[in-house]
Structures are given as structure tokens and as C-alpha cells.
Amino acid sequence: MAKIKTLIEQTQAQLNKNLVDSERLQNELKLAELQIAETATILNQTDKKLSQTRIELSNLQAQKSNIELDIKQQQNALASQLKSAYMAGDYDFAKMVFNQDQAGKFERVLTYYQYLNKARQKQINRFRSLIKTLEDVQQKLDTQESELAILIEQQSSQSKKLSSQQQKRFAAYTALEKQIRSDQARVSQLQQQENALVAAIEAAELAAKAAREKATAQDIELNGLSTAKGELGKPANGRMQALFGKRRQGQVRWKGVIFDARAGSTVRAVADGIVLYADWLKGFGLVTIVDHGQGYMTVYGRNQALLRNVGDVVLQGQSLSLAGTSGGQSKSGLYFEIRHKGKALNPSQWLQN
């Protein structure tokens, strides 16, 4: 009996040590994933700026081509005027001045030449203006090309940094998995994660009143999701794993679904709402919780980066975050839940097929 008691005490002590080590590794994992989120957010901003720069570069190239074509047309018009002046220029002005019989003809020719000179001067001024515009556009083009090269270099550097951070995160994740060797420890951890999410939702519900008042002040009505069943758009691209209600481990069951979304892809709000929670949560990684009114909330977990802050009003289809592997996941995706007054609902019944 004493030996059994001793064995139980030793086993419990080892379990407690594993849980302590697990907590330490979870903190390391959190730090690594927050660093990844910061880098991913910067990379996302660089991608947008890069796309905009390429559009501006394309517009400048088109503008340059149009100006060069205009200059060519002006050159042809100027050449035509010079040719006309030459063809009409067989006059001896000295004779015409002293020969009063040709005074009328002289006046007509002089008027004609004045007209040609004014037209030619106008064409020359127009030509000079086009050359100056072309020089300005070329200067802008050179500047944009330089900025584009810098952005591409920044993007490459940020991508390498993100890759390095992901490797560190995966190393922390692998070490964490090795610590969790028994079903008892695993179930205990899952229950802790579930409790943490419930606590976060409860805290969000307490903040919901103030959030709704803010939404009302911005003329946004939060009417819940009761009339949207079966009509909500999917929060992310990719195949949906309908896991709701299935046994996860022990007595713990899935409360949501998973979308096999590509890392860095956009996560969208399924309906109008206000962000009540945006932070890292043990087991769920970077999480955003959106309140839709009437007790309805949606949960978006395992994100690579969060793009909205607490208090932000979001409209249906607007970006919330970037899908990822936070929370110790080995495969990229989005974890998604729908809750009504704290109770988990089956997302498959609310989302469009």
C-alpha cells in the first residue's frame, strides 16, 4: 500500500512538473507567435504598398507613352508648317516694299507669314511643354522604380525574418508536444484552454454593453444573427472541417470548425459587429472575438496576425486578421466558432454551403 501511495505521489509530482514545463513552453510559444504576428502585419502592409506602387508605375508608363506619342504628333505638325512656309516663301520682300503696285499683294503675304509664325510659335511652345512634362514623368518613374526596388528588398527581408520566427515557433511547439505524454495531461490542457476561451467570452460579454453604445453612436445596429442562419458568408477561403460536437479528447468536444486556410490569407467578419477581444489566448493562439448583438458572438482563432483592435467596428466581409498557425498548430488554418449567450452553435448550420 505504501509503495502504491509513493508511486501515485511520484506520478502526480511528474505530472505537475510536466504541467509547469508546459506552461513555460506555452509562454515561449506565445512570445514567438506575437513576434510572428508583428512581422506578418508589416509584411501585409508592405504587400499592399508594393501593389499600389506597381499600379502607379504602370500608370506612369502609360502616361509616358501617351506623351511620347503626342510629341511625335507635334513634331509632324511643326514639320508640316515649316514645309508650308518654305513652299510659300518665293518672294523678294525688298522689291515688294519699293514696288507700290504690289503693295496689296505684299500686305496679304505679310499677313499670311504672321499667321504662320504665330501658329508655328504656338506649336513650338506646345512642344517645349510636352518635353518638360515628359521629363517630370520620367523623374517620377525613376523615383517609383527606386521605391519598388526598395519595397521588394524589404519584402524579401521580412519574409526571411518571418520564416526564421516560424522555425522558432515550431521548435517551441515540438518541445511542448513532447512534454504532454499522457491523455490525462492532454485532457487537462484542453480543458484549461476551453476554460480560458469561455473566460475570454464572458469578459467580452461584460464589455459588450459599452461596445454596443459605441456602435449605436456610429449609427451601426447590432441585431444579432437570428435572421442570418444559413446565409452567413464563410470567414476564410479553404475547405471547412465540420468538427463541431465531435470528440476531441476524453470528454472534451469541438465547439467550432476549422478552415484549411493558407497562412497569411484574409480572415473576414461574417456579419456587422464590434471587436470585443483581440489578443493571444492559450491553445487558440491569436484570437479575435466579434459581438453582433442580441447575445451573438463569433470567434476567430489560430491567426497569424490581428488587423483590428478592441472597439473597432467591422462590417460584413471586412478583414479581421490573417490566417495562420498560432496556438501551437502545425498546419495553417482558421478556428471559427459561433456562440449565443455563451453557448456554442454549430457553424455548419449558419454558414452558406
UniProtKB/TrEMBL annotation:
Coiled coil regions in record: 8-77, 127-223
Positions of the M23ase beta-sheet core domain: 254-347
A Pfam family reported for this protein in Swiss-Prot or TrEMBL: Peptidase_M23
InterPro entries noted in UniProt: Cell_wall_metabolism_enzyme, Dup_hybrid_motif, M23ase_b-sheet_dom
Keyword terms of this UniProt record: Coiled coil
PANTHER family: MUREIN HYDROLASE ACTIVATOR ENVC (PTHR21666:SF270), PEPTIDASE-RELATED (PTHR21666)
Protein name in UniProt: Peptidoglycan DD-metalloendopeptidase family protein
The organism of origin for this protein: Glaciecola petra
